[in-house]
Amino acid sequence: MARPATVWGFFFAALAWFLALTLLWMQVSAWTSYPAGGLAHIVLGNGAAQWVRAVHKEPGRIEVDTRVVVPAAAQGNRQAVAELIAEVETARYAYGLPLFLALLFAARGRQIVRRALLGYAILLVPQAFSLVFSILKQVIVAGGSPAALGVAAWQMEGIALGYQFGSLLLPTLAPVLLWLWFDRAFFSSIVVEGWLARNAGGGVDS
Amino acid sequence: MLRFFLIFLGSQLLLFGVELMQPVQQHVVLPWTAFLAKLCVMLVTLFDANAAAMGKVLWNPTTGFGVSIEPGCNGIEACIVLFAAVVAFPTDWWHKVWGLLLGFLAVQGLNVVRVISLFYLGQWNDTAFRVAHEYLWQGLIMLDVLIVWLLWVRRASPRAVAA
């Protein structure tokens, strides 16, 4: 397949693919993100066993029954308590998949299908990261003080930082970095062509 | 390429950590976000009188609908990604400085379009707003970052890169 001739050609192709693939992805996101929920289940079960009582998964959603006690609606004159249930949509942080595929298709490199499948599998890891920290954030927000949760203050800070990173940066950063790594040849060709055009006195952005 | 990735990730984490510090939030992020809301109102009122800014909220006093510009919606995280990519790429510092300035304008310019489009999408259709807010604009902003960076990289000096 021929590579796009210019950066702008690549941009418009990526834009068109991204819009089309996002609409398509929304129809199947519950299923494509299901394995990320599975990974998050494993991590939560092993890394936060003191808080996690049970994890329930279904396509599009992961629900965690915790041991964290939170105030509930009063019954009569007695203050009631309940155990926190944290939940998150598994596709919530998985929207980088159509972006990754759009970049891959727009660059028109070799072995697209193999790279697409490999990229999908790799992207499950950052997606699971975001899901895990989203659940943990719900726990520390509802659970109160570090002492009540049995963790140190720095661990709560770490969870807050992980949540911010996993929700604000990782979902779109991971697919772009992965594509850049997969399509290093495309990147190199763009850079070299720019330099050659510049040295020849031509425009570089066309 | 590996060196680029390592410097990029290091810069990224450093800048992101700095952004989350309380003094930075108080003296940089929140004032910037409020300025962004006011800028959006100024632009919107050029063609629509039904818009007002209250802190970081852009809202329509007639319908009561408003959009609050929250972390992730103020373009700062996208700028952090671009800045880290510019810093990590091996070229001369003068080239980096104008890459940072023009990159900031390009990302924030598109972000203003995002905020205004969400303001109107939300008043029109809740589902369209949710799709655009949670999925489409996130990817579009990152695509903008990537293209701005690629265009900038093409203008980098090859001699400086080789040095």
Task: Label this structure with key terms.
heterodimer, A: 206 residues, alpha+beta, 3 strands, B: 163 residues, mainly alpha, 3-stranded antiparallel sheet, 6% strand, elongated
Descriptive overview:
The complex is a heterodimer of chains A (206) and B (163). With 206 residues, chain A is of the alpha+beta class. In chain A, 65% of the residues lie in helices and 13% in strands. In chain A, helix 1 runs antiparallel to helix 3, helix 3 runs antiparallel to helix 4 and helix 3 packs parallel to helix 6. The longest helix of chain A is centred in the middle third of the chain and has 32 residues. The two termini of chain A are 21 Å apart. Chain B has a three-stranded antiparallel sheet, covered by helices on one side. In chain B, helix 3 packs parallel to helix 5. Chain B starts with a helix and ends with a helix. The C terminus of chain B is likely disordered. Classes of the chains: A alpha+beta (206), B mainly alpha (163). Chains A and B meet through helix 1, helix 3, helix 6 and helix 7 of A and helix 1, helix 3 and helix 5 of B.
